[in-house]
User: Fold this.
Amino acid sequence: MATTKERLDGTYKREFRNANGTFSPTGRIKFGTESNGGFKNITVSNCVFDYCRGLALEAVDGALLEDVSISNITMRDISNAPIFIRLGNRARGPKASTTVGAIRRVNISDVVVYNADPKYSSIISGIPGHPIEDLRISNIRVYSRGGGTKEQSALDPPEKEDTYPEPTMFGDLPAYGFFIRHVKALQMRDVEVSYLKDDLRSAYWLNDVVGADFLHVTSQHAASVPTFTLKNVADFSTHQCWPIADMRVEKVDLKNY
Assistant:
């Protein structure tokens, strides 16, 4: 804890020492990782994240995560993904026959993030055959530190279905704003992402997504860098997402916009 003198003269420094002697912030609001019983009918509101990890919603041991509303969150100096939503199949439960759970009917709104770690975009990722369903994200503002490369923009991260869920699990990501994979029925409204240093990755990267509506969604992007990268996406639409024209795409295998 900082002394009064440190706060007044500006010498206070935030440091968190790990077991290996390195410094790294921890702490976060997290559902999981142990998730046999599930998370249902929950609200989280009016919270501040300061020099810590981001919001994490995880169901990897057969649990249901449903009917969750999260709102009025501010984040500053976030050390991994601002928003991490992961449906996986670690299947570590009381029965060997534990099946894949579900994440559905989640609303996240009124979130502002400043100085997010550029190694991690926000991540929304189910697994093949088990999409995250019915997700609403609105009034979100994210400032990343940026610096992503053209080489990173071409990546297609591994699935790692049974891996312990953390934003680091996928390695470098091809998007600086939102990495979205195996999702059904997604609506993003009034979302803006930008960076403090040039980034050569797409703002939004979607793979195996069915039903994605983007309304008044904007992003900073360098010349010749797309806003959206779509792979195996169906029923995709944009409305007032300048400079992208309003569109509705029935199905696309691979395309940038």
